[in-house]
Amino acid sequence: MGIEVEIRTICNNPIELEKKLSSLFPIVKTKHQVDEYFLHPLRDFYSNPSFKEYLRIRIDGQKTVLAYHKAFLKDGKKTHTEEHELLVENYSEMKSVLESLSFKPFVTVTKERKVFDAGDFELCFDYIKELGYFLEVEAKKDFGGIDKTTQECFNFLKKIGADFIPAPNMGYPDMVAEKIQKK
């Protein structure tokens, strides 16, 4: 299990931002990911005001990962995430197992991601097919608790001269689901 502290900003000028990031930091990997999220048959993953839960299967190149994430909320805003992930050998069989247990497909998120190494931070420059461009700043270490670590993410974004344009206070699957519902 890992704890993740990050912030996310909308990229209004993704071409310039990508150039800037590439000039400042090395790209450590690029990824094409397809994430399929599922809803629990007996429990509403969104009913608790203190956290949201996600169950997904991610196809990431030749690797498939089953993940359970619990996003903790404070005053309706995500503070951090508890993550549990494991490799699975066969996407189709894993999906079949979940559907046999009455888990329902919820939404699919298709992502192109460039990951930059920025010392104490990992920067993920994301293009979400269904939504557009985003930048995530994730702390690689604890700066003295969740609140201080979150603040350091904001400080780092400001230090590199990137604008903070708040993304909706929800995960990519929630944003995609909301966009689909509005159609």
Question: How would you explain this protein's 3D organization?
Answer:
There is one protein chain. The protein is an alpha+beta fold and 183 residues long. Helices cover 25% and strands 47% of the residues. It has one domain (2-168): Beta Barrel (Hypothetical Protein Pfu-838710-001), CATH 2.40.320.10. The protein has helices spanning 14-24, 91-100, 146-159, 172-182; strands spanning 2-4, 6-10, 27-39, 51-60, 63-74, 77-88, 104-118, 121-128, 132-139. Strands 1-6-5-4-3-7-8-9-2 form a 9-stranded antiparallel β-sheet. The model has no long low-confidence stretch (mean pLDDT 91).
Comma- or semicolon-separated keywords:
single chain; 183 residues; 4 helices; 47% strand
